[in-house]
Design a protein that fits this description.
Shape: elongated
Helix content: 25-40%
Structural class: alpha+beta
Mean pLDDT: 87
Radius of gyration: 23 Å
Length: about 350
């Protein structure tokens, strides 16, 4: 029977379970460190990985239950390379089928979606089974470093392996594996048109919401922006007030007789260019092309509208340099129309 495998973002509620997995001797015996973890350290770690563009983490769910963690690390966007690793913390969830599905689907993600050129990993040489699995997936051994890692007075040999994009594309059609999506595009916020920012912030505060940001005046888009969220969590709301009489929000409020009203959904996406193209093929009209947004520290957004689905905002998950060298829509030479541009902002 095939077991469903799903990946999702790591949440604060997962930290206690991850701490148990990460300190399990059966897990740490094959890892570089035996960490002394605390809830405070775990929370700090979660906050750091959410803002570090050189790593990406996903929680693995197998059969609907949390089972482990998989990640990319040491991401070099310019070179298009990364290292990776994973572990299944729940013993009952471990299987050869799951291991193949996770590893090969990760290669699809980094080579198809991110357009990396190479991915590498390091394995304790005593973990011969995992080394053979990596080789079966197309990896080659680059070198073995004797005594590279020291833990508690014991030195461990480490085997370094590598897989190139070219090699993966040449062999994957011969591989049989369950394909898992690493795409974590998600609803980021709901936009609410309001006539008076200060009064609305106060009203939401009395309703149990707290600010997630200071007020931002986006002069280019002629709007004032602030984010609020329930103290207990849940969906973020973006309050959008007019900045000047010719603000696009003025018309929305006129139609609602100045009553605050929801008017757009914002989705955080891995590849904003690719998603714009996909939506346009689904008869969405582009009303504002890809451009930096002051409210998101320069991350790029785009707005599209559908008569049936309304206004949609796309927000890139990680800050890029935006359009490629040709700002009329060309490509920089290191990416393709459906790839993730590696020309990163300084």
């Amino acid at each position: 029977m095939t077991m469903e495998i799903r990946l999702r973002e790591i949440e604060e509620a997962d930290l206690a379970l991850i701490m148990r997995w990460r300190t399990d001797p059966m897990i740490t015996r094959y890892m570089n460190t035996d960490p002394a973890l605390t809830p405070e350290k775990q929370l700090s770690w979660l906050q750091s990985i959410r803002t570090d563009e050189h790593v990406r983490y996903w929680l693995i769910e197998i059969g609907g239950c949390p089972a482990g963690v998989i990640n990319l690390a040491d991401i070099d966007w310019h070179a298009g390379t990364s290292s990776w690793g994973y572990y299944i913390g729940e013993k009952k969830a471990r299987s050869f089928q799951a291991a193949l599905a996770l590893e090969m689907s990760l290669y699809d993600y980094v080579f198809d979606i991110l357009s990396f050129t190479e991915i590498h990993n390091e394995v304790f040489s005593l973990n011969a089974g995992v080394i053979k699995l990596h080789e079966a997936c197309g990896n080659v051994i680059v070198r073995e470093e004797k005594g590279e890692v020291e833990k508690n007075g014991t030195f461990y040999d480490v085997t370094h392996l590598s897989l190139t994009r070219e090699t993966w594309f040449s062999i994957r059609d011969r591989k049989s594996y369950t394909k898992i999506s690493f795409d974590t595009d998600r609803l980021h916020h709901i936009g609410i048109a309001v006539s008076d920012m200060e009064k609305s912030l106060e009203k939401f505060k009395t309703g149990g919401y707290r600010r997630q940001s200071e007020i931002t005046d986006d002069i280019t888009r002629k709007v004032r922006l602030a984010f609020v969220r329930k103290e207990s969590g849940g969906i973020i709301l973006e309050l959008v007030a007019p900045f000047g009489i010719d603000s696009p929000v003025t018309g929305i409020l006129g139609g609602s007789k100045q009553v605050a009203t929801p008017y757009h959904l914002c989705y955080e996406v891995e590849n904003i260019r690719r998603t714009v193209r996909q939506l346009r093929r689904q008869s969405y009209c582009l009303v504002e092309d890809i451009a930096p947004a002051a409210a998101f520290e320069g991350r790029h957004v785009a707005f599209l509208v559908s008569r049936e689905a309304g206004l949609v905002e796309l927000l890139e998950k990680y800050k890029t340099s935006g359009l490629c060298a040709d700002d009329r829509g060309g490509y920089c030479g290191t990416c393709s129309p459906d790839s993730f541009c590696r020309v990163r902002a300084a």
